[in-house]
Design goal:
CATH architecture of chain B: 3-Layer(bab) Sandwich
Order of helices and strands of chain B: EEHEEHEEEEEE
Shape of chain A: globular
Mean pLDDT of chain A: 94
Structural class of chain A: alpha+beta
Helix content of chain A: 25-40%
Strand content of chain A: 25-35%
Distance between the termini of chain B: 25 Å
Strand content of chain B: 35-45%
Helix content of chain B: 25-40%
CATH superfamily of chain B: Archease domain
CATH architecture of chain A: Alpha-Beta Complex
CATH class of chain A: Alpha Beta
Radius of gyration of chain A: 21 Å
Low-confidence stretches of chain B: none
Shape of chain B: globular
Number of domains of chain A: 1
CATH topology of chain B: Archease, Possible Chaperone, Chain: A, domain 1
Number of domains of chain B: 1
Number of helices of chain B: 2
Structural class of chain B: alpha+beta
Oligomer: heterodimer
Chain lengths: 480, 140
């Protein structure tokens, strides 16, 4: 962050003044502690780079989990005007609709304590994970097109889950306007094998227990109670999404000169929303997003099966309900009040979660009087937070909040730091059982490699963007 | 001496690659890509296969990224691991390479890292004293 000077706005925000080719200033959500961590990397420069893009509205934003990504910072939020703004595949990310899904059960810690190892082992065996893992769902070409068009609804129709699951999935589990014709043969090929897989890296499935309730009313509405067993899934669109992003990014880099847009970083390559290439990318991105929702829906169904079989309980006894499913790598067309006028904008959330307040029509009816659940996983083994979107998110952050803890340590640093240690054993001491395909993943994902999720969440809470509802503690975790 | 080294990046893996010539830079960058992803056990036999690829790019940097993207796709989409490279044609905006490689085999190959993509982020390709140098970030 060498040459960039940030000015403190208040306890939770730092202003990145507009300089050079920036069209708007930047704002970074951070408290003093997070601000100090920012000084080591390039994320503030990336916030400034995004501010160069045409049609950007108000500010280039970064949430408190901000860290150095490629092109856009991770934790970046930027909204663009529809008529003269852009869409950037790099501003969505390779893992299109990477996101989180939280399910609750009727069970308490006492019900599963003795069977936690069996449950975790069974989940590890039944949910394909790891690099290049292939799924248990084999798709025909025609089925795959339906997955891309219908998302989670395809999965429910195919027998993976319940109709009610769709009600608490962001956008009902499908973005409209998905056109499989805009997806390359290569992306389709990669997608065929991987539906119903977790993947590797920071993706995970965790069994958690609700440890603390901060907001009784919202918790009651979301169906969360202290001591209750829950499951959090974090994954996305797998190879299909990576390939869509890669294809369109290369195409936009190739034609970068035609748009006349000066890019401070090639990774920001973009197209005007009104152009053919912009529209085609949006239609392909929707396909990637819908595939990811079908993927998480299938994984949830597998989790239900494993719980029922391992614990020898009926579906009604386990009662695994979907609290919510959010995407945190996405571009959405949403309406916001800009200077007194309601305007449609294209909001890029690259490692950021939608956080709509009470009363918003996109919030599921059963949650509308309190607001949308915002799911924030912490580092491995520390658990997760559930927040609820606030009105201020609409005026300050284009309805967005953070998406996780955010890395502070590079992967190579993490591997170096963890040398000679057993991360699995250290987590076991803390009471968290971890099963992973590779020791490398555990080292890279070690808790110290991340910011403290509590600090990140406090910034959002104190800034009035999203209010704390509940905290969940990890009991066990499976990873690729 | 290794012809590439890692540089620190918070979320991803960055490599700085050198080569005496542009051709050598490209081959070394490809070597780094597979080195980051795969560890091969010696002793296990494999059947060698050949593939010819042609790549286009707006300039030398774009050409390098497109070359690496193609190799990454061949691995992710077709399980083809490239071992050696013969550059048949090298122009400013076009490249043709004869690849020799083998199919992924879990007895012989261990995947160390999943690379989602070869990014354009912070990409530099430049002439230096010893020849050429590139900085590339892999999204993992």
């Amino acid at each position: 962050m060498s040459e960039i000077k940030l000015e403190r706005m208040d306890d939770n925000r730092w202003l990145l003044p507009q300089t050079g080719g920036m069209r708007v200033p930047g704002i970074i959500y951070a408290n003093e502690k997070i601000y100090q961590l920012l000084r080591g990397d390039e994320s503030a420069k990336q916030v400034a780079n995004v501010a160069h893009l045409p049609g950007i509205v108000n500010y280039s934003l970064a949430m408190p989990d901000v860290h150095w990504g490629y092109g856009f910072p991770i934790g970046g939020v930027a909204a663009f005007e529809m008529d003269n703004g852009i869409i950037s595949p790099g501003g969505v990310g390779y893992d299109i609709n990477c996101g989180c899904r939280l399910m609750t059960t009727n069970l308490t810690l006492g019900d599963i304590k003795d069977k936690l190892k069996d449950l975790t082992t069974a989940l590890y065996q039944h949910i394909p994970s790891g690099v290049g893992s292939t799924g248990s769902v084999k798709l025909s070409g025609r089925d795959q097109k339906k997955v891309l068009e219908d998302g989670a609804a395809w999965a429910v129709k195919a027998g993976f889950g319940l109709q009610e699951d769709l009600e608490t999935t962001e956008d009902g589990g499908a973005i409209k306007g998905a056109d499989p014709e805009q997806v390359s043969t290569r992306a389709m090929e990669r997608g065929k094998q991987q539906l119903g897989t977790l993947g590797s890296g920071n993706h995970f499935l965790e069994i958690e227990v609700v440890q603390e309730i901060f907001d009784e009313e919202a918790a009651r509405v979301f169906g969360l109670r202290k001591g209750q067993i829950a499951v959090m899934i974090h994954t996305g669109s797998r190879g299909l999404g990576y390939q869509i992003c890669d294809d369109y990014l290369a195409l936009m880099v190739k034609h970068a000169n035609e748009t006349g847009i000066e890019l401070p970083d090639r990774q920001l390559a973009c197209a005007y929303l009104e152009s053919g290439r912009g529209k085609n990318y949006l239609a392909a991105m929707a396909c990637g997003a819908n595939y990811a929702w079908a993927n998480r829906q299938i994984l949830m169904h597998r989790t239900r099966e494993v719980f029922e079989k391992t614990l020898r309980l009926s579906p009604r006894e386990v009662n695994m309900r979907l609290v919510y499913d959010v995407c945190h790598n996405i571009a959405k067309i949403e309406e916001f009040n800009i200077g007194g006028i309601m305007k449609k904008l294209c909001v890029h959330r690259k490692g950021a979660t939608r956080a709509f307040p009470a009363g918003h029509e996109a919030v599921p009816e059963r949650y509308r009087k309190v607001g949308q659940p915002v799911l924030i996983p912490g580092d491995m083994g520390s658990g997760s937070y559930v927040l609820v979107g606030q009105e201020k998110a609409m005026t300050e952050t284009f309805g967005s909040a953070c998406h996780g803890a955010g890395r502070v340590m590079s992967r190579t640093q993490a591997i170096k730091t963890s040398r000679g240690r057993s991360i699995a054993r250290e987590l076991a001491v803390k009471g968290v059982l971890v099963m992973a395909g590779s020791k490398g993943t555990l080292s890279e994902e070690m808790p110290e490699a991340y910011k403290n999720v509590q600090d990140v969440v406090e910034v959002m809470h104190n800034a009035g963007i999203a209010r704390k509802v509940a905290r969940l503690k990890s009991l066990s975790c499976i990873k690729g | 001496m290794s012809n590439y080294k890692y540089f620190d990046h918070t979320a991803d893996i960055g490599v700085e690659v050198t080569g005496r010539t542009r051709k050598e830079l490209f081959v070394n960058a490809a070597g780094a890509l597979f080195d980051v992803m795969i560890e091969s056990k010696t002793g296990e036999k494999s059947v060698k296969q050949h593939k010819k690829i042609t790549i286009e790019g707006a300039d030398v940097a774009d050409l390098l990224i497109n070359f690496l993207r193609e190799l990454l796709y061949l691995f992710n989409g077709e399980q083809f691991i490239t071992i050696s490279y013969e550059i048949i044609k090298f122009k400013n905006k076009e490249l043709a390479v004869q690849l020799t490689g083998e199919s992924f085999n879990n007895k012989k190959h261990v995947i160390k890292n999943e690379i989602k993509a070869v990014t354009y982020s912070g990409l530099t390709v430049e002439r230096v004293k010893v020849g050429w140098k590139a900085r590339i970030i892999f999204d993992v």
